[in-house]
Amino acid sequence: MWRYLFFVFLAFMVHSTDAVRWHDHQLCGNTTQRARGCTTQILGREHADIDSCTIETFPANSQECKKMQFSPIDSNAFIGGVNLKPYILSDRQSGYSVNYTVLNITFTNIKWKTMKFRFQLAKPKHLQNHCRNIVLSNEVTVNDQSVLYYDCYWSTTDGNYTGQSHYLDFEATDENRVVNRGQYYFNIPSAQMLSPTVTEEEWLPFLYLEILNDRMRLHINPPPPQLNIAGYEIKVMKEADKGTQVDKVTILKLKNTTKDVMYDYSLLNNGSYNFVVTPLHAKCQAIGGKCLSVESPKIVITSEIRSLNVCIASITALLVATLFAYYIVLRVIRRYWCKDYGLALVPGKIPAPTQVLVIYSPVNRLHAECVTSFVTYLRSEYGFDVMFDGDISATSHGDPYIWAEEAFRLASHVMYIVGPTEEANIYNNIYDKPIINAHRNVDKLLLTRLRSDRVAKNCKDVLNVFFEHSDGEVPIETKHAKVFFLLKDWQKLIAYLSKNLLPKQHIMRTEKGKNFLDDLAKAKKVLSERHQC
After folding, report:
1. φ, ψ (nearest 5 deg) of residue 42
2. Domain-embedded: residue 147
3. What transmembrane ranges does the database entry give (predicted)?
4. 11 pLDDT exceeds 60?
């Protein structure tokens, strides 16, 4: 009956990898107690300080829970892991059995001090909700391997909520009062899909959508261990005037069967979208076979950009005139506002180096090593002040968030280095494996910062750099920036980063360059004097 417990703390002991689970049945009980202690679920029964961890409960299906306030969806890069997974629980009551779908939330790599969340039926007129607020005291230290479980939200699988769409809203606040916000959207699965006896021909995965500012992220729960699922066919469906149409089709191979599969889809246009996922196995061929599919809930996307495009399409003449005027204004702004007067050459003064912030996705180890070599070369041979996430460990604070804010503030150029294609969640060799360290998601944080900074008047130069192996996606934040292909555009790239400085000015930026110019000056002076004699 361990599934009744509310929290589980995963503790790693010296020379041991066994998980220790502390059981407590009181936290899921029906009680009017508003605040309950959860310290023993985190630190063990030997700790009795109720103030170290508390959980605030709200009446189920209440207006109080419905009115719980959440911040706008912005970023959840530093929230840690929040995973959703349902399972079936049979409860015998007075001689008959009732099946419940229990929605388990697993919090991993906990970075927060407070976490509030709400399950809610996605029907405005229905008051079906469940709210909690978890508070950890500042004295509690939780390591990166921590895992907390919450599984007190039960839905009757034999009732009316099977297949109904639900939202899970959650918001975390860390010790520095930085807020991270997330939202999941999902359908309650049927009991048959969660049964331990389900077959490959019957099984359909549990899906939940993560709603972000610029994209939808599809999460696919792993299959039961007895099933041999080879992969998934993912269709992005969009409702148009002529009905529903397929917007994109992707085949994802599955070789890691213990973790969620994630698939991102960029949101560029208005419309109603959803995903259709088909599990692929030996008895189901992608073409012509008897394959079952499951659909995600539909999400309606609206944006001012789409409305603006429709308006502009009807006034083409105005578009041309506006673009021309916009071009002239940009030229004036760039000439007079964006000029870096600190680089004006003063006799005897070394020009300040260009400050370049490098952003890249570390999901591929070989690509990350190429980025490190590239940065090292630009620093040593060209004297550029290049900043990238490899510098974080050398800072006094070691905080990725502080480093990212400071680096973005200092940078005059933002360079995104495009990586290889991400095909699936499996890796054929060590070089395909992502780099897992304490500085994960720095690229997402910097891209979010770049997106929010578009309205600022600091005139950062943004560029995309492609290596020879770069065939991955360009993020929407840099999609329309300048493009350089290496090594073909090497001279153009250096000239762009150097702001077209004269060769002598550029050479003066490095120690080797200064020594070289000193040697030239010395040789010129000595040889000139010899010729005069």
Report:
1. -100, -50
2. no
3. 307-329
4. no
